[in-house]
Design goal:
- It contains eight helices and 13 strands.
- By secondary structure, it is an alpha/beta fold.
């Protein structure tokens, strides 16, 4: 059965408490109890079953790129494997996905691909997807490699330091992108209306700054597999960013929500200067 958003929020919190504030909807609670999905504040077996269509089943990590702005550190180490405060950048993402109970973890690799094998010691269930054209295309090629794995899936840029692992939740109601509100940014950002992303652009005022973590529902993931391939094969398609497909070039096929977070929840370290500011051990003069 399809759940309303209030019903979903209540059942999600009952199954996997987030510790955050959840708006109380007495009507939704009463309806869930009437349907036998909630009892004494706990999800019943039927309630857990009703949440199955909304369960995140896998995560896809995009890790094929060179990370040129972090050179010279990335001359010998892929950016996701660079250590920050003694820990590989990608570890924070992998640990959060495992804690959320995701059953499948996939990492798209390209540059210095064999170095990612070291992850298997800590994450033996991690599977690799090879991107042989990573140095000839933009990251749309990595998303194309993931193709049929994008349903009920998180897609994560693998060079993000995740400081709030609770953002990776076991259940998601609909397709969404993490973002935080900002008065001004020169980075990638969204215009949003009624919680739905209406435009993606570089730089803006009173907008939502994009964070490289998204979630795609079952139906949207199937659409993405088709649309990514079609855009990729068009003239100039190999130069696109993957998220431009659902947010720009095939926007009419999707209704992608913004999922609010805080600026300190996720940190992208693009340059050596930013790395030194984040981890003082790199600031050696």
């Amino acid at each position: 059965m399809a759940l309303t958003r209030p019903q979903f929020d209540i059942l999600s919190e009952a199954i996997s408490p987030s510790g955050g504030e959840v708006r109380f909807h007495p009507e939704a609670v009463q309806e869930l109890e009437r349907l036998g999905l909630l009892r004494a504040g706990q999800a019943t077996p039927e309630g857990i079953q009703a949440m199955e269509p909304y369960r995140a089943r896998r995560a896809v990590f995009l890790a094929a790129g060179f990370g040129s702005r972090l050179a010279p550190i990335t001359f010998n180490t892929p950016k996701p494997l660079v250590r920050v405060h003694g820990r590989r950048i990608v570890d924070s993402l992998l640990d959060a996905c495992l804690a959320a109970g995701l059953e499948e973890l996939y990492l798209v690799r390209g540059y210095l691909a064999e170095q990612f094998d070291q992850l298997l010691y800590r994450y033996p269930t991690l599977r690799f997807l090879e991107n042989p054209v990573f140095n000839e295309t933009n990251n749309i090629s990595s998303a194309v490699c993931a193709g049929g794995l994008l349903s009920n899936a998180y897609v994560l840029e693998a060079d993000l330091v995740l400081q709030n692992p609770a953002l990776i939740r076991p259940y998601q109601y609909s397709s969404n992108f993490l973002a935080f509100q900002t008065p001004r940014t020169d980075d990638w950002c969204f215009e949003v209306r009624d919680g739905v992303i209406t435009e993606e652009k570089i730089g803006g005022e009173n907008c939502w700054q994009m964070v490289g973590i998204s979630y795609w529902s079952g139906p949207d993931g199937q659409l993405l597999e088709r649309d990514l391939k079609e855009i990729y094969q068009q003239p100039g398609g190999r130069e696109r960013y993957w998220e431009q497909v659902p947010l720009v070039f095939r926007r009419e096929n999707y209704r992608v929500s913004v999922r609010p977070c805080q600026p300190g929840d996720v940190t992208e370290i693009d340059t050596l200067r930013e790395l030194k500011a984040f981890d003082k051990s790199y600031d050696i003069g």
